[in-house]
Amino acid sequence: MKNIVCITALLLSTVVAFSQSLHSRWDELTASEWPKALALSDSTCILPFGILEKHGPQGPIGSDLIKVREFSAMATKKEYAVVFPDYYFGQIYEAKQQPGTFALPPSVVWDMLDATCDEIARNGFKKIIIVNGHGGNPNLITYFAQTRLEKRRPYALYFFQPSMDSAFRKKMLAERKSDISYDQHGGESETSMLLYLKPDVVKMDSAQNESGKPLKRLHIQNAYTPIWWYADYPNHYAGEGSMATKEYGKLLVDQYVETLARTIKAIKADKETLALQEEFYNRMLK
Questions:
Q1: N or C: which end of the chain has fewer CB within 10 A?
Q2: pTM above the 0.85 mark?
Q3: In angstroms, what CA-CA distances link 33 with 30, 44, 82, 204, 264?
Q4: How far apart are CA 72 and CA 104, in angstroms?
Q5: Which domains does the chain have, with CATH numbers?
């Protein structure tokens, strides 16, 4: 019995050591490493989904890309999966009045995402996890995910949606300095994370050059209109980035990465989703 335990421990340590030496980024793997990457990831690939847009007067255009890139890299050191190159072809029409915004036509956005997932699957991945860093993408992603049931597909799509427990929320609220009700874009939280992840691209001396407070120029209840964001935040800045700190950023990033790593592990072990999806496809009317 003792020998079996020792052998098992040795095998596990070997797997962990090998996964740590194998690159997680798709573009940094060699073709000869592909079978090993598929095996270690349990055929699981992360699609880090950001955008190119203004992030207040102090944040870089690629803030959302930087976040999802770093989150994915950090999480896959804890739980191995392959990470697709940074993806920024999303929904960002509400920021077209700002320089640096990269907004493709709707049909191109959709076709790009559809073809990208198909190509990821063609390369052997059966599970695709979208890790999103942009607040304008969730409606697109959830609808896209639902359309995976429109016809038979060889992969399951997962949209990572992190949450926080009451203990962490209490700690987070105690650490922050600004009003959380409008800390939505380029504010204290996002700027703090960037100060922790990549401080050299944050221009804190510019953070108060514009206002990130909501103007509340629309007063229509019980109806949605796409101009709502511009009505409140014409500067495409929501929050108080000047309140950001590296320490608060570390708190937020550590919690996010730990949650993502646990989710990757759970998805790698998941047998039900693909089986249920196949059952569903088999019952679809031809």
A1: C
A2: yes
A3: 5, 15, 11, 42, 21
A4: 25
A5: 24-283 (3.40.50.10310)
Buried b (16+ CB within 10 A) or exposed e, 223-232: eeeeeebbeb
Q: Give one word for 10, left, alpha or beta, with left for phi > 0 and alpha for psi -120 to 50.
A: alpha
Residues in Cβ contact with 59 at an 8 Å cutoff, skipping those fewer than 6 apart: 186, 190, 191, 194, 202, 203, 241
* pLDDT tens track, the chain, 286 positions: 555 544 444 444 444 445 558 999 999 999 999 999 999 999 999 999 999 999 999 999 999 999 999 999 999 999 999 999 999 999 999 999 999 999 999 999 999 999 999 999 999 999 999 999 999 999 999 999 999 999 999 999 999 999 999 999 999 999 999 999 999 999 999 999 999 999 999 999 999 999 999 999 999 999 999 999 999 999 999 999 999 999 999 999 999 999 999 999 999 999 999 999 999 999 997 7
Measured between alpha carbons, how far is 209 from 206 in angstroms, rounded to an integer? 5
Q: Where are the beta strands (DSSP E) in 11-161?
A: 44-49, 82-83, 127-132, 156-159
Cα Dmax for the chain: 72
Alpha carbon distance 202, 58 (integer Å): 6
**In 3-state terms, what secondary structure has residue 141?**
helix
Local structure of 50: helix, strand or coil? coil
Q: In what order do the strands lie in the sheet with 44-49?
A: 82-83, 44-49, 127-132, 156-159
Nearest partner of 257 among 78, 129, 132, judged by Cα: 78
